[in-house]
Amino acid sequence: MSDKLSRRDFLKLAGVGAASTAVLTGCGPASRSVKREPYMQMPEYTYNGLSTYYATTCRECAAGCGLVVRTSQGRAIKTEGNANNPLNLGKTCARGQATLHGLYNPDRVTDPIKRTRGNASGDIVTWENATQIVADALKNNKPEEIAFLMGMAPDHLFDLVADLANSTGINAPVRFGALNMFESRATLSKAAENLFGEAGLPFFDVGGAQVVFSFGANFLETWLSPVSYTRGFAGLREGQTKKRGTFVQFESRMSSTAGKADEWMPLRPGTEALVALAIGRLASELRGGSMPRAFADVDPLEAASKSGIKLETLEHLAEMFANSTGALAIPGGTALGQSNGLAVAEAVLALNAIADNFGKPGGVFFSALAPNQTEYQRSASVKEMQEFVQQMADGKFKVLFVHGLNPIFELPASLDFKNALKNVEQVISFATFPDETALESDYVFPDHHGLESWGYQRVATGSAQPVLSGAQPVVSPFYNTRATADVLIAAAQLASGKFAEALPFQDEVEFLQSKISPLMSEADGFFSAADIDTFAAYFQQYGGWWKLSDGRAVPNSADVLNRSLSSAEAEFAGEGEFFFVPFVSPTLAEAGANKPWLQELPDPTTTVMWNTWVEINPVTAEELGLKDDDVVTITSEAGVLEVPVYRYPAIRPDTIAIPFGQGHTAYGRYATALDENGKIIKRGVNPTDLLGQHFNEAGDLAFAGMKVNIKKTGKKQLLSRLESIMGVYGVGLGEEK
Ligand code: SF4
Q1: Cβ of 179 below 6 Å from ligand 1
Q2: pLDDT mean over 2-17
Q3: Mean pLDDT for the chain?
Q4: CA-CA to 577 of 20 to 30 Å: which in 90, 314, 495, 506?
């Protein structure tokens, strides 16, 4: 039990709300100090054969979905979505389910370690030593020589480090993640600023729409908040007026999202802005009146010729959009990851002005700011990361703390993060798993797994209501790990002076309570309480706090159609013959490769498991003399990869695609492979190795702006796939087809 909450008080709280009476809080694994005991003396609420349930937050991506975790005898057994949390309303994606495979992963970092960079092993140090090392790093370097690099999630640890930075003058923490790169969040925010006069993350009400045009947004896979958008998609299909909504996807490769569309438009990469503006012009003509300036300069015939979409098809699409009472256009994904990505985002957002849907059901909003948040806090673009890496290379940082991301794997190799790291005197990683960046660090002081942790996370988008998802330990920590917040608080006390003043807390729980206590007096909350202990207990029990009202803001769309918009096509880097589309694996994403359930989950479009492939249209494959499983080299201006072929009919003949998720050289046994001598080798490849440093106007990487060449190697590598005539798990391996 919490030391301030009596057992009787707790039982009163646990009984609040019929739907949540089984969700426990304030005791068992959630206790501040955990006494290790044999199961002969089980902790309170742990009974043979009886499950207990804890509400917490999924940490597998930055969306912040609420979970309810079933535990039995101190072990987490099953995760489900938290039905109370307005973001995901009881649902999760596959990665949310597989978070248990991170918890039980046999390759977790089990103790604080002092390492020699590049070596797989290291020497265990005590937590007292580790805390002193962190304290010395803070105290013995100038503030401008200390940097924190953190994951995408706007969570309590980010707030703690931001507070530390504000008070002591050390560099403000930088947040980044590969998904941010593939989502082009800076582009979305900048386009909103240009069109509406205010930066922010747009929210698209798919569930309330009747017709949805998505230009590259893979919102049923990993984009922004996939569980929330999948719920919205279910709403679209059910129809607000009991009429099944229509969905059209524009992209050169049929993604898993496009596979659910009524119509797939495989346009030529780089022509998305042109096509969006042409549809805008044709739809405006159908609606009558004067032609808006935004669409006045575009020629639909030219758009048809350049994009490869027939004029009749563009006219049909314009009619569909103009005649619907609930049309919605979404820019995202590969469409924004090009040199003209900002123009694409603006052109597609402007289509919504024809539908006059801003701030209306089925339309475009600004995402609700989370509780305690006054403005949208965007994570860093790749351009900003390029500047960060340059500062590392220039020796500006003497000490670098890394938490919640694996930049050596997640950033394009062309940024050369690994080399720049050599010019940082001291690198301290808080990694839970032995990833590539942890191996290049001097110390690894492992944080608990998310299911062993306290915390909260701001929901950046996906919910109409402002949501702060809450986290609590659902099991006792399995290993000798420690909450990074506790390490930093203790180190700040040791460093004394301004550091101790910046974090004057007994521990992480006290810090969390200081952050959520202002919510007690906020109106319109899901719950309230007169004192912080009761409020914090509710916070744990329900899995966070949220407002009951709609917090989305209405964009100012007055001038959207009155400005000239660019229809310029994208420029592509490199001399290659083929457009290159790297896309995020819907099953693995950036951190799923060390979870066997996710490796085992067939890719939704190709059914490939445990490996990487390159998708090539069968017509192109025929011309190049390629069959399935033939290994080819893919060459860009930035790098070369070897990868087996998957002939994929749903991709343009001039385009090839490779999923992002594999290609680890570390990160545990499931993420890597062994050669015949038992040496650890890569499992699959990382397509970001092919990406050069080209950016759009918002500073996002033009990751879909490269051209590549293909060459047959004569080698073969059989891919395990569910649909394979060779069978699964290598049945028939070695036999010629
Ligand atoms: S969308 Fe992200 S936060 Fe939500 S369940 Fe999936 S991985 Fe977890």
Answers
A1: no
A2: 37
A3: 92
A4: 314
